[in-house]
């Protein structure tokens, strides 16, 4: 459906039917409008964006990627920029400026309304990945001594400028967070009741310096629409909304996936990332892994005489190392996910190890039995070789799953990203370990 709409808009643009283009844009969701403008040629993107009414323009601008925002800001007049910046939510404006060159940031701040400028400057002082960096100061704040009627009138008067009105926060005269009340509670309560009588005092909140990922986890855990953020003196300074929390989770998941693939995380969309930058993000890890793989090469070189005496042993090395890497990768993936979801913590290392060890014993036993049977069938008379491979495979799986389960927990304990300990690193460690297990087992049983 959207493809047909985009084709229609493109045709209208080519025919310079701008009034019809504007009419079609007004009937579309802001996300779809943003996608269409991003796909349009650069010289037409600014033209289409200027067709949008003021309110829609701000909403659409929020949905653009960094490159498109930069392109439009550069082409805007000061008056156009003033209109857009002052209509943006503060958190969206801060997110945009964090991605812009210093010269653009300076121009935007100079153009913005003084109140907006002061708020942006205040937000930009917070740490990049803190809860405060993704919060918004646009919320409904009520007083304890308000009546329900006064609270509803206040929401009607000020709700238009708030990020969300469903959850309202109760503060004292010094803005200290005292409680929370929902619009649903207000609507079903008697109009003359005080807010202090109906509010919930059991408020879950985060501080400004809390990690943004932890805040997102809390929102997900409790199914909040918004989460209050307080400063060191328990004063309410902002809220984190559900949509911003989802953006944080998406960003963190993307970073984890890239790290698990042995790459430096990048915030730029794939098709818009220069080849040189893609190579730069990958080459460091590839170099590290290549160097660590030399350990496995060194182990093999020291056993050349054994391979000369029994060449058949070489053919089983890929199977052993790959199985060990796969087993370790399975364990690490589950543990990294569980850490991200808050299901386990580093102090649970023994429980994790014990569980993975039992899983490994079961998996290793069946894999070993299968492989021993396969070897006996394929290589008649090589019964001792089959047993050697079976024992080595069993021990490799147990070792790999233990390593894959424990290393992410160690990383988390050391305040490192557990994804760093994912498949590439674990595979390298497991490869060396599996070779040592295999060759020493062969030396003992086969007397080589």
Q: Which blocks of ≥5 consecutive residues have pLDDT under 50?
A: none
Indicate the CATH class of the largest domain. Mainly Alpha
Proportion of strand residues:
5-15%
The shape is: elongated
Q: What does the main sheet amount to?
A: 3 strands, mixed
What strand order characterises the main sheet?
1-2-3
CATH topology group of the largest domain: Tetracycline Repressor, domain 2
Total beta-strand segments? 6
Give the class from helix and strand content and strand pairing: mainly alpha
Integer count of domains: 3
CATH architecture assignment of the largest domain: Orthogonal Bundle
Spatial gap, N to C terminus: 69 Å
User: CATH superfamily of the largest domain, please?
Assistant: SLC41 divalent cation transporters, integral membrane domain
Number of helices: 21
How helix-rich are the residues, as a percent range?
A: 55-70%
The helix-strand sequence is HHHHHHHHHHEHEEHHEHEEHHHHHHH
- What integer is the average pLDDT? 84
- Supply Rg: 30 Å
Describe the secondary-structure layout:
Layout (H helix, E strand, L loop, with lengths): L1 H13 L3 H9 L3 H10 L2 H9 L3 H10 L2 H10 L2 H10 L2 H9 L3 H10 L2 H11 L16 E3 L4 H11 L8 E5 L5 E6 H6 L6 H4 L7 E2 L4 H11 L3 E5 L5 E6 H19 L14 H27 L2 H6 L7 H24 L8 H30 L4 H31 L9 H24 L2
Parallel strand pairs: 1-2, 4-5
Antiparallel strand pairs: 2-3, 5-6
Description:
By secondary structure, the chain is mainly α. The protein has three domains: 125 residues, MgtE N-terminal fold (Alpha Horseshoe); 101 residues, CBS-domain, CATH 3.10.580; 177 residues, Orthogonal Bundle (Tetracycline Repressor, domain 2). Strands 1-2-3 form a three-stranded mixed sheet. β4, α14 and β5 form a beta-alpha-beta unit. GO terms for molecular function: magnesium ion transmembrane transporter activity; metal ion binding. Keywords: CBS domain, Cell membrane, Magnesium, Membrane, Metal-binding, Transmembrane, Transmembrane helix, Transport.
């Amino acid at each position: 459906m959207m493809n047909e709409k985009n084709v229609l808009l493109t045709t209208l643009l080519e025919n310079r039917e701008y009034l019809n283009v504007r009419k079609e844009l007004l009937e579309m969701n802001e996300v779809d409008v943003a996608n269409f403008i991003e796909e349009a040629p650069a010289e037409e993107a600014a033209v289409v964006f200027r067709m949008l009414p003021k309110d829609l323009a701000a909403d659409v601008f929020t949905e653009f990627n960094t490159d498109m925002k930069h392109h439009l800001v550069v082409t805007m007049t000061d008056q156009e920029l003033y209109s857009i910046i002052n209509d943006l939510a503060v958190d969206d404006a801060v997110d945009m400026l964090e991605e812009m060159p210093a010269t653009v940031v300076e121009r935007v701040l100079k153009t913005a309304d003084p109140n907006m400028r002061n708020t942006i400057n205040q937000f930009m002082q917070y740490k990049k990945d803190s809860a405060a960096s993704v919060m918004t100061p646009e919320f409904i704040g009520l007083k304890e001594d308000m009546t329900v009627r006064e609270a509803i009138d206040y929401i009607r008067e000020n709700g238009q400028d708030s990020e969300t009105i469903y959850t309202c926060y109760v503060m004292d005269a010094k803005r200290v967070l005292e409680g929370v009340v929902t619009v649903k509670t207000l609507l079903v309560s008697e109009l003359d009741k005080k807010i202090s009588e109906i509010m919930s005092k059991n408020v879950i909140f985060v501080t400004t310096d809390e990690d943004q990922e932890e805040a997102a986890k809390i929102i997900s855990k409790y199914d909040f629409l918004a989460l209050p953020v307080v400063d060191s003196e328990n004063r309410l300074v902002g809220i984190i909304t559900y949509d911003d929390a989802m953006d944080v989770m998406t960003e963190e998941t993307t970073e984890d996936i890239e790290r698990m693939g042995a790459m430096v995380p990048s915030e730029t969309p794939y098709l818009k990332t220069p080849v040189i930058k893609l190579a730069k993000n990958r080459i460091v890890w590839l170099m590290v892994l290549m160097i660590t793989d030399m350990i496995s090469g060194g182990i093999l070189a020291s056993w050349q005489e054994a391979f000369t005496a029994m060449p058949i042993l070489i053919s089983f090395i890929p199977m052993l190392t790959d199985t060990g890497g796969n087993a370790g990768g399975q364990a690490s993936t589950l543990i990294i996910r569980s850490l991200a979801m808050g299901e386990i913590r580093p102090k649970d290392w023994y429980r994790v190890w014990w569980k993975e060890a039992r899983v490994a014993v079961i998996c290793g036993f069946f894999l070993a039995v299968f492989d021993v049977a396969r070897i006996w069938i394929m290589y008649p008379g090589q019964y001792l070789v089959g047993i050697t491979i079976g024992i080595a495979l069993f021990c490799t799986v147990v070792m790999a799953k233990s390593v894959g389960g424990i290393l992410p927990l160690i990383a988390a304990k050391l305040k490192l990203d557990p994804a760093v300990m994912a498949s590439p690193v674990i595979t390298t460690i497991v490869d060396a370990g599996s070779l040592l297990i295999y060759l020493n087992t062969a030396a003992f049983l086969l007397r080589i």
